[in-house]
Amino acid sequence: MFGWVSWGRRGVEGGGGGGGGSYDPDAPVTLTVGTFGTFDFDNAGLYEEYMELHPNVTIKENNVAQSAAYYQALQTRLAANSGLDDIQALEIGFIADVVRNHSDAFVDWSQEDNADELEGNFYDWKWGQASSEDGQVVGLGTDTGPQAMCYRKDLFEQAGLPTDREQVGALWSSWDEYLDAARQYQAAPGKPAGSAFVDSPASIFSSAVYQGDLAYNDEEGNPIPEESDGVESAWSYASQAAEEGLTANLSQFGDEWNAAFSNGAFATIACPAWMLGYISSQMGDAGAGLWDIAPLPGAAESASNWGGAWLGVPKDGENVEAAKDLVEWLTAPEQQVKLFTRTAHFPSSPQAAEDPEVVGAVNDYFSGAPTGEIFGESAANIQRTPIGPYDTQIQEAFTTALTDIASSGTAPDQAFENALEAAQQAIGG
User: Fold this and answer.
1) CA-to-CA distance for 15 and 321, rounded, in angstroms?
2) Model's pTM, two decimal places?
3) What is d(CA 314, CA 19) in angstroms, rounded to the nearest whole number?
């Protein structure tokens, strides 16, 4: 055991809708949970388990498929202070906006009686990303997206590249070495016609940018893409790949990209832990054993995170105390272990990441790769890079510019200027 928090705040005063009164933990209650995409609490059996432990609680999940549509609706409801679920999921792409502009609408976890224990359950950078300048904490972490690099063993073999994951990891300990491997792949006579080394320039840029001391923002969360060391280095690597035709130049999450997993259009892709499920869902049984996993280039010095979420409790809700109990339970290390072993969402808790069930996890679909070990080492090396409310828009500006290099032959210097201009327009500057 790792000194985990004891769940359930029995007899707490001031529950209900946050306006006073006595909280009866045994009274019948229906808790609504607003989520987007796939959180897998239901598929992992966590909702069912909680309701068995608390027969008075009924959980109803309100899910929206696309995170952008979810957050647009959430912003509208926050402005009206109406229509909010008892629990609201908060994604990394908009956590900075919530922290900066809506922190007063959510329960502040730093003020809970067990705040120190709660904070100790999460990676420092995960707790920090949900924290405001004055110390308010708007949510407790669910999963994270520590990154590795997935690669097609069959395509590597055809191109004369090593296929053993340790040898592959040594092949690209840096992004410069990764580009050298890409050039070797592209020049190999045995590789399939039309196959590129990596799916898109975005795979390189969006991974490398968070390996710098700064990505898109300064320490105060103000956008500074033109001054960032992370942007500078990530642009250098990604623009080389785009200019030299080392990528398939696919739009990530588009239909063509989805189909490309099966048709061998690319041999590598930067993959956070949750991407494993995405790849296997696209390829099905036919893809089992074709893929393997190696560390992300440069991860030994600085790892990279893509994705992850938090659960927040609107403080004026009707069932605040009951909602807090559920959030604490769902995000506890014990439940994070279950979520990983059952549905591959990597923990935001170091205690959970160090649990033997997680550390010892392997993925048969990905050639028996030790996923617990690989993603655990990545998560431990992630640093807290400042994030801001416009990161998604800024990243889109740069990845669009990289696509222009690959598809239209735009000069990298000009494309960089175009990206800066588009980023400034997106943030209203």
Assistant:
1) 5
2) 0.87
3) 13
